[in-house]
Amino acid sequence: MPWFAVMTKPGRAQWDLACVSLRDAGIEVYAPLCCEAPGARRAKPSKVSVMFPWYLLVKQPDVGANWLAVDRAWGVDGVLRPSWRDRPSPLRDGVVDALRALENVSGLIELVPRFNPGQGLRITRGIFTGREGIVSQKASKRVGCLKALVGPWEVELDEGDVEPIAAVA
In terms of pTM, does the model score above 0.70? Predict the structure, then answer.
């Protein structure tokens, strides 16, 4: 049976309500949870959070199944469809199995940050392409880079515009 993505109404309480109401309706729900993996700066995993806020994955017999139970469940905004009048599009085969394979014994997916403060990096796009720096701070999909050009300066970059390196020259 294929899996489909369902959008919930905004807020964690609505997400929780959608999980419960879909399961009460007999629909299999997969709602992956994640935490930041322990590392050099953290001895324990970070707090648990929802991997896909506002989204749940549900298993239905087929695309032509009756979606009223899903669409009308408490906390659900709707099933993802290519357009409002189309049938829902199933996820590619193996997506849920791949996510489940990443879970640890506690059922959490530990996210390993690509960049950590103090790590070397090279800028791969933009006007500073080729320059190297040191990660000063990490935010969601953004990296603060400290570099000495004329004097020390800091710039914030998209994670896709930099690559990790072993050491800064």
Answer: no
